[in-house]
Amino acid sequence: MAPAVADPGYYVVAPYDQAGRVGAELRYWTTKASGENAVLWPELGLSYGINTRWTTRLLASWEGESLRGATLSTWNWINEVLLTQGEKPYDLALHVQLVHNHEDGSHALELGPVWQTDLGRLKLNANAFWEYDSAKRDTRLKLQWRGVYRVVPGWRVGLQGFSEVGRWNDWAPRQRQSHRAGPALLATLWDAGPDTVTLNAGYLFGKVYGRRGEMFTMQLQWLR
Hints:
- The radius of gyration is 17 Å and the shape is globular.
- The termini are far apart.
- The chain has no helices and 13 strands.
- It is mostly beta strands.
- The protein has a single domain (22-223), classed as monomeric porin ompg (Porin), CATH 2.40.160.
């Protein structure tokens, strides 16, 4: 599997207010192309809600075919800015992510809108990100979506999906695009006093890097 400065979408970005709260998170995602060993990406991040509109995050990402053999892959500075705050029947935010490749010093910029709405117990997300890669010198389009249903307070289940379609203004032929989807789980594991612990996870089937494969994605976050 060829390495990339900015890898396929591994978790669905959602708009939320984290004002004044510090967060720590563990992310872990894997991809496995047919007939190949799985590639693992363990990640650690710290976040802070600067105000009711702006949350910033620093994330370190490792890559390898085993946890012991994983090496530092990228540094990521991620910002979400809320553009609406309850005045609309939906939430809208701007996602900005700067990626520094540790190995070759190249960079990527990911930018795009983040959208979310609730229909009764159903929560819907849809995002579109344009990604400029300084190594490839082109801009590619990435799509994310999710629909989850609240089964009991704090627990939602449903489906999510990710796509990479190629250059933003000249999509790749269908057979060279990557689309994958599968079951998703969102859970609040703890919410008492100042502390909140949440878990997002999913298992997806389809194509990764233009090849048939599978993906597991998990995000465990603590906020205070």
